[in-house]
Design a protein that fits this description.
homodimer, alpha+beta, ten-stranded antiparallel beta sheet, globular
Chain lengths: 320, 320
Amino acid sequence: MPELRQDPLSGRWVIIAENRAARPDQLATTSDVSVEECPFCPGHEGLTPETSAVYPSRSTTQSWKVRVVPNKYPAVEMNASGDRGEAAIGIHEVIIESPSHVASLSDISGDEARLTFIAYRDRLRNLRQDSRLAYGLVFKNARVEGGATLEHTHSQLIATSNVPADIQFELAKAGEHRMLHGSCAFCDLIDGEVDGDRHVLETDSFAVFCAFGSRFPYEMWVLPKEHCESFESTRDSELVELADLMQKLIRGLEDTLDSPAYNYWIRNAPFRLSSHDDYHWRIELTPRMTRLAGFELGTGCFINPVSPEQAAAQLRSVFA
Amino acid sequence: MPELRQDPLSGRWVIIAENRAARPDQLATTSDVSVEECPFCPGHEGLTPETSAVYPSRSTTQSWKVRVVPNKYPAVEMNASGDRGEAAIGIHEVIIESPSHVASLSDISGDEARLTFIAYRDRLRNLRQDSRLAYGLVFKNARVEGGATLEHTHSQLIATSNVPADIQFELAKAGEHRMLHGSCAFCDLIDGEVDGDRHVLETDSFAVFCAFGSRFPYEMWVLPKEHCESFESTRDSELVELADLMQKLIRGLEDTLDSPAYNYWIRNAPFRLSSHDDYHWRIELTPRMTRLAGFELGTGCFINPVSPEQAAAQLRSVFA
């Protein structure tokens, strides 16, 4: 049964999830599941737990484009019970982004990518109905160095009964900013970055820039230009624009950097914001070309060998 | 010029060090420096910057066992100047642990390992004399997955003009504990762990256990049993015991887990503690068999598939 623990002195949080040690590639360095055995490929639907959702919504076992299933090795469970720590209560789902056995969001059709982003929103909308759940993180691990244990392109959603400490920290900061300036910290951030030297590109609804404190080379942040607290309130038309944009950004990284492993995740508001809380969702997208090593683990401070200004200049030319 | 930046909203710290992009393996996935070109092998002393210290202390270019040199691609520099962030002022050194081109602390002689730990202490003692430096982190990255860009066994020391936020957090926690209980939080932690189900082993001067909030499978903490704030105050006889212990622990991990990549680092007190500060140094040693991926990067919370209790039981049998 997964357990949530906080180290009493460092304040670090960890989920102890022993059932995950049984995963295909866990505690090993490379993924070794062959295409023939891939549980995410069509015809192998029986290898995954029962489908939570399927897109298009009336599709059959033969015709799905995106499938959502419970993770077979969940990091959190609704019936978890804490033995030495707190129970790590939650839901852990996998979003299979396409029937095609390909490694990246950039390799699937535009339709599949759009349905993937619609699935993200719909699953968050669904899970927030459960009063036991407080937060939902959508994330994607692509390729081995990005933490993917199965190659077939997929994302994950972990909803938990607690709000992660990092999100609480940002909420507090955004609240302070609102009190001091009467405005949203993230809206102000976008205003400061648009046309600046960390700017990458803009679409009708979204701004993309390399963050001032980028932890990784070529890390990009994608924010809705109009103030929007929760990813769940994103409209269909915006999700289409976002899916297209994400495919474009990932293709740009892959062309420029020799198809690196990458991660993205949605920094989203908690499911229930109190009246004084303030947030503005964003996606953080980063290739994984540097390793977290002793210095990062020993201090919490990252070393990034490519400045966001240099990365943005290079990326602007890629997307020009 | 390296720059220290804090993201205004997430509070995350990063050092932007563009000169490090020139490192042999930076922004690539494997190390490709051949033994013939290894700058840490004897006879190649001219390939590294001028020696900062050498052990045994009177050894010649031909007879050194441990050499300390400035890092050729430093993450921090004494003459750094901040352009957009703070200047990342500091010293970045490499401790070459042996003339032998081997990959692990476990592969070198007992003498070389002891001199390595003496070098750690002596370099910290030396650098703390500089009033511009506030903190020194000694760390080791072994093998590619552990972040080593050169195979030849070595450690690093990064001394900075600021105290990392993680250390400040622990200092505050330890201060609180002292105020509430009148005792050292770490001494009390050792008392609680000795003979408990996370206990691994004990020597005359050191206790080893798997931490309650272990972020990684088989993560071990090594603490001096007698209260001791700074690693710099460790005596020669204790350093000999510690070097022997670290070699034993690493050999145990390598035998049990098929020679994994690993890291260790010394969580040390800042160079200058104020009268109300309280600390107790420790070493954190961890094999690197899981990857930090989207969930960890998106929430700051780690997922560990092996409970510290299970890891400790297995490790006790290895060291029995």
